[in-house]
Amino acid sequence: MSEVRLLVGTRKGAFVLTADGKREDWEVTGPFFAGWECYHLKGSPVDPQRLYCSQSSSWSGQVMQRSDDGGATWTPVGNKFLYDGVTATHQWYDGTPHPWEFKRVWHLEPSLSCPDTVYAGVEDAAMFRSCDGGNSWVELSGLRTHATAAGWMPGAGGMCLHTILIDPSDEQRMYIAISAAGAFRTDDGGVTWKPINQGLRSSHIPDPDAPVGHCVHRLAMHPTRPGTIFMQKHWDVMRTDNCGDQWTEVSGNLPTDFGFCIDVHAHEPETIYVVPIKSDAEHFPLEGKLQVFRSKSGGNEWEPLTKGLPQKDCYVNVLRDAMCVDKMEDCGVYFGTTGGQVYCSANGGESWKAIVHDLPAVLSVEVQTLS
Amino acid sequence: MVRVDLPSHLRTLAGISGEVRVQVEGVVTPRTVLDALEAAYPMLGGTIREYGSGQRRAFLRFFAGEEDFSHAGMDVVLPDSVARGEEALLVVGAVAGG
């Protein structure tokens, strides 16, 4: 029988949550790396026992961990993230030039074909690759040295590369997103990059439809339709059907289109999920009601999913890497909150149940479907 | 042997308890002590001093013999008492975050 394994990164450590295919009874292990911020954990799709974890702290910087036994034990691996060559500047919040400084790894994306290859999205924005299981890292510097990079600016959380999507039909094609530079695509494995922000409109920047400078919060893709990408922008939910060359807004009837996370149903490429957040100043659900919204039409027409979720006095946030879907026949949807809850829906969002209530603030949730 | 007292989160990372003792060749400075420490415990690389600049991380400080060596540079000679192992080099995390 299949089982699922959730990899949960929090402000104070990492946790591994496992359940059988019913997804009713959960075993919680952890905290691993207690006291450290664990921005992201993710498993290799080639070897599910191979996991990677980003562990960091303000005191001691970045540490990387690898597990070869599904999270039972971990080994520190390479943490030397050195930008390639001379670093230039990007814009600071006040518009002045600011030197590129490595701060942490936000996101890990293991290769679809090799368990030893993994990509890392970091702050200040850049992309690194390891081909030896995380022991050493090399920057794909074509991104950071892009002609537009001097004009990139940090979002409120820092200038982070937080999303990496690999095209399953062509691993040389990848999509990334940076707050607040926007979305970019490579068609040659990360050597060269193209901004793909046409159609985005951000009223809070001087040129609302500028080629770069948009605060993209998250991208999501269904593996059978790699040319269709969904985006939760700072404000606005967007989609593209031509690999990012043109975006269209699909916020439709959402009560607020601000938010951080977005994901796609495992078996229905036009079914997508978001968690609307009140505003950029008030990072909590509208009216204290925690609601997931689902669209079965690829956007525009949305329905609230609230059964089992708190509908009063709820003022948590759901961060950009904190939603995921499993591949079970009845697609499971999961998300974690800054209040320390991890919710599971074993029926595509129809009803929800908290797996845990009291973890540290959840930064990321990933799921593995194991047979 | 030079004794080094690490903050608890780094002891956990390195899988050690209590003080660390490292063999330092030549003059005992923060740099030579950290070179020896990182050679013995590679997972501590980058956690006390930055990889790029080689400088002390901002939220960590160095003390020895009740004296603050945090701003004395990586090549300052540490007291004889540290070199002789009578006192430890203290690597202390700043009290930040409540």
Describe this structure in words.
The complex is a heterodimer of chains A (371) and B (98). Chain A is mainly β and 371 residues long. Chain A contains no helices and 30 strands. Chain A has a domain at 79-337: Methylamine Dehydrogenase, Chain H, CATH 2.130.10.10. Chain B has a single domain (2-93), classed as Ubiquitin-like (UB roll) (Roll), CATH 3.10.20. Chain B has helices spanning 8-14, 30-40, 80-83; strands spanning 2-5, 20-22, 60-64, 67-68, 88-93. With 98 residues, chain B is an alpha+beta fold. In chain B, strand 3 (60-64) and strand 4 (67-68) form a beta hairpin. The N and C termini of chain B lie far apart (35 Å). Chain B is built from three helices and five strands. At the A-B interface, strand 6 of A face helix 1 of B.
In short:
With 371 residues, chain A is mainly β.
Feature tags:
A: 371 residues; mainly beta; Methylamine Dehydrogenase, Chain H; 30 strands; 0% helix; 39% strand; B: 98 residues; alpha+beta; Ubiquitin-like (UB roll); five-stranded mixed β-sheet; 20% strand; globular
Oligomer: heterodimer
Strand order of the largest sheet of chain B: 2-1-5-3-4
Low-confidence stretches of chain B: none
What fraction strand of chain A? 35-45%
* Radius of gyration computed on alpha carbons of chain B: 12 Å
Number of helices of chain B: 3
Overall 3D shape of chain B: globular
| SSE run of chain A | EEEEEEEEEEEEEEEEEEEEEEEEEEEEEE
Overall radius of gyration of chain A = 19 Å
The top-level CATH class of the domain at 79-337 in chain A is Mainly Beta
Q: Could you tell me how far the N terminus lies from the C terminus of chain B, measured between alpha carbons in angstroms?
A: 35 Å
The first-level CATH class name of chain B: Alpha Beta
| CATH fold title of chain B | Ubiquitin-like (UB roll)
Write the CATH architecture name of chain B. Roll
CATH superfamily of chain B, called what?
Answer: Beta-grasp domain
Supply the helix-strand structural class of chain A.
mainly beta
Mean pLDDT of chain A: 97
CATH superfamily of the domain at 79-337 in chain A: YVTN repeat-like/Quinoprotein amine dehydrogenase
